[in-house]
Amino acid sequence: MLLEIDNVTLAYGRIQALHGISLTVGEGEVVALIGANGAGKSTTMRAISGLRPVSQGTIKFDGQDITKLRADLRVIRGVSQSPEGRGIFPGMTVRENLEMGAYTRRNRTEINEDLQRAFTLFPRLKEREKQTGGTLSGGEQQMLAVGRALMSRPKLLLLDEPSMGLAPMLIQQIFDIIVEINQQGTTVLLVEQNAQQALSRAHRAYVLETGRIVKEGTGRELLNDPAVKDAYLGVA
Amino acid sequence: MDFSGLIDNFGPLTVTGLAQGAIIALFALGYTLVYGVLRLINFAHSEVFLMGTYACLIVWGFFGLDQNSAAPSVGGMLLYLVIGLVVAIIASGVTALAVEVVAYRPLRRRNAPPLAFLITAIGASLFISELTGVLTHRNQRGVPPIIQAKPLFTIGDTTVTNLQLLIIVLALVMMFVLDRFINGSRLGRGIRAVSQNPDSAALMGVNKSRVIALVFLLGGLMAGIAAVMYDLKIGVTRYDAGFLLGIDAFAAAVLGGIGNLRGALLGGLLLGVLQNYAAGLFGSQWLHAASFVLLVVILLFRPTGLLGESLGRARA
């Protein structure tokens, strides 16, 4: 297993956000995490990337315990996150934002290759290369956040709501790109409100409710699960 | 109001003001750098400067120089100047780092509220200043005549001295170097990233503690240079020298737009020049009062300062 989360609890002050979450992501998989607002999806992501310290439980990455490791050191191990709300650097150009994604890397030739790859995946970013991040549209910022997260050549890519605020056509496109990234060898853990898309594209998925995992299965199984259909797919 | 005093001395007042402003600008960078990353006013920065003013005097003392010494030869002047700058830069840089490690870092570890940082900043400032006061018996210390101000050239009826030129050129060069570092280097990019979005910066692999230490250090280095220039220009230092000039420097940082490096330069030069105009117009006793009236007026129209944006947005 590339990622193993065992019985993780996490609290914001007195508010318990995660009540003992356990999940795994295998190498080469696309795994989706679905659930309602406030179920703890983004919190789970922050626990994995290290932005939030966990109260209990362990997080193992690539066989090693990273529970107490600082966020910036997890990047070097191969964890990369496109955060909720995109988190781009508004005063840096698109190119500088992408290069920030490669901050931990030194090999200029490889970085340039990956810049070209990002521009190939998102031609729009190439057009906007010299514009500052703050002047981009929401969709463009989303592409930038995903492209930037790829620039560290991660083993595990964490995507928090990559379809948020995107037009329906762009949603299709960004999921196509996620599948493409995965086929190029990157493992993906994906948080989504858009359960229909997420479940049809992911190998496996977990359903989160109020800080607990209530269901897991293959994408197909969950797509056909009556309770999931009822709660998350908008069909009775 | 003495309009003829201002008009007759317009050139000299401008040059004096620019030299004064250049020192203020270098000093102001420390406030703006730290603010850009931590949203914290490091009031102890005035004592970072203070340590620089003493450090170069102490090392010049090792060479047997005091305020009664004869002026050195040109070669000696350059040598002493470089040694003084290096020692002051080290002293100020180390002081800045020490303040960060001893005073602020423990608070950050405990997620202390902003007010705790503010009172700690004031406390650290007072502590270092008062300790210096006790150790020096609150006496001022004279500066050896490393550089004797001599007229270098004249534009119209305005004479520019070698010292004024040195101060202005050195400040501009340091600003340029710092600007290239922040906007052009990998570490500089890390600083901008933390100032624009600390969480995202961590997700890129930026070590925030290291970035914070770096901005304190950079601010300290600039204050060290300002300190040597101040010594040479004013001729004495005292335990409260940092406090008095620190208020000007902080005002300059706010005037230019705190968090913005170029704003600190602009704010410093503007404040220096306008203070001297005000002194020409109303008499030198009004120098500080007039400049702060102006600060208030400018902030009424531009509340975020003249170039008011964040450090991270400072673009090449």
TrEMBL record, chain A:
Residues spanning the signal sequence: none
PROSITE patterns documented for this protein: ABC_TRANSPORTER_1 (PS00211), ABC_TRANSPORTER_2 (PS50893)
GO molecular function: ATP binding
Family statement: Belongs to the ABC transporter superfamily.
One Pfam family of this chain: ABC_tran
PANTHER family: HIGH-AFFINITY BRANCHED-CHAIN AMINO ACID TRANSPORT ATP-BINDING PROTEIN LIVF (PTHR43820)
The protein, known as: ABC transporter ATP-binding protein
Key words, A-Z: Amino-acid transport, ATP-binding, Nucleotide-binding, Transport
Source species of the chain: Paractinoplanes lichenicola
Limits of the ABC transporter domain: 3-235
TrEMBL record, chain B:
Keyword Lyase: no
Position of the signal peptide: none
InterPro entries referenced in this protein's UniProt entry, alphabetically: ABC_BtuC-like, ABC_transp_permease, BCAA_transport_permease
Main location: membrane
Keywords: Amino-acid transport, Cell inner membrane, Cell membrane, Membrane, Transmembrane, Transmembrane helix, Transport
Location in or out of the cell: Cell membrane
UniProt superkingdom: Bacteria
Gene3D superfamilies cross-referenced by the UniProt entry: ABC transporter involved in vitamin B12 uptake, BtuC (1.10.3470.10)
Membrane topology designation: Multi-pass membrane protein
Keyword Nucleotide-binding on entry: no
Family: Belongs to the binding-protein-dependent transport system permease family. LivHM subfamily.
The name this protein goes by in its record: Branched-chain amino acid ABC transporter permease
Source species: Paractinoplanes lichenicola
